[in-house]
Amino acid sequence: MDKVKTAVVGCGAISDIYLQNLKNRFSIIDLAGCCDLDEQRCRAAAQKYGIAAMSVADILADESIRLVVNLTNPKAHYAVIRQLLEGGKNVYTEKVLSIELEQAEELVRLADAKGLYLGAAPDTFLGGAIQTARLAVDRGMIGKVTSCVAQNGRDYNMMGQLVPFIPQQGGGIGFDVGIYYITALVSILGPVRKVSGFLKYPTELRTYDQPNSPRFAQQYKVESETILAGTLQFDSGVIGSVQFNSECIFPEQPVVMLCGTEGVLYMADPNNFGGTVYYRAKGSNERIALPDAFGYTENSRGLGVAEMAWSMAAGRKGRANKEMAYHALEVLHGIARSDRTGGCYELKSTFERMPPLKSGYFPEYLAKDHLCVDPEAALT
Ligand SMILES: NC(=O)c1ccc[n+]([C@@H]2O[C@H](COP(=O)([O-])OP(=O)(O)OC[C@H]3O[C@@H](n4cnc5c(N)ncnc54)[C@H](O)[C@@H]3O)[C@@H](O)[C@H]2O)c1
User: Fold this and answer.
1) What is the mean pLDDT of the chain?
2) By percentage, how much of the chain surpasses pLDDT 70?
């Protein structure tokens, strides 16, 4: 199988783990170069990983680069992705596809028109924990799934002072963090039909009060939501509740549950690749920890990129695809629209629920007897 020559745009906070994994873990990827508006950052990353320091123009001019990974800030996503697609590159982007739904729709259309792959994070749904939960549901362990709950609380009064994009549009807990939970739910349960909900936007100015903040004592305005709560009706009939609250405490206490006619699954935090999935059967008081069936329990960022590269090589649809990413984004925008209008929002998009990742997809797991499958065969 030919490797897929790949470049990365955006060498900020999340880029190091991507570059590390793309360079060392996934045999399908040939990491060629990286690029950032900040030339110093770009050179430092290029030097660390022995790859070329490039500009977007260099990447577009190099026809051998077939896949570009976009790790810029959400506000830059639309323009960067559009430029790369127009330049004929297959693109995998960090979440979210773009901040505005209309712009995300335009990107999906552009990729279709150009016949290019457009994949998107979060790829944590391909990690061991969510794939194990998916396996349990697919095998009927909890019977017919009837409802689900996903929630998390964080202290963004504190975290928002250390991570500059949190108070900005698109950086709030609903869109920036909720997308992991919505993606996990839809990847297991399929498309959503209708949503309703509420958001909270603070009106008061806040003051940086953390002594270690570079903006200590300055005032700032929070442009993003601090709470997003919604009710989801899935096509399958499952009813779900989601709640993301950044006016809460540290440490966070995520809860994700799938309730069925024969049992309950307590999922791990979809913000991570790993974690223990617990199962409780009908009539039992015991929570049983399910063994991980897949691997990829540590920080496996780039897994979605590698899966997309394998899909490109095999000429089939990727699992972390644009249709599911757009649908998950529309769920969040639908909740926001319901908050504004006071009514339910009916989803316009849908997506095809993709097959689960097969155990042993990637070569490093080939050594384990029970996971001994050919990586290509795992895509069938
Ligand atoms: N930081 C995290 O923990 C984290 C976790 C998961 C996902 N993400 C996602 O990863 C993405 C990047 O986040 P981050 O925290 O690394 O952001 P960051 O602000 O640290 O880095 C973004 C980088 O992109 C560069 N950039 C912006 N526009 C550019 C352009 N047009 N061309 C080239 N470079 C450009 C910036 O100079 C910056 O170095 C976001 O989509 C975010 O949602 C971040």
Assistant:
1) 91
2) 94
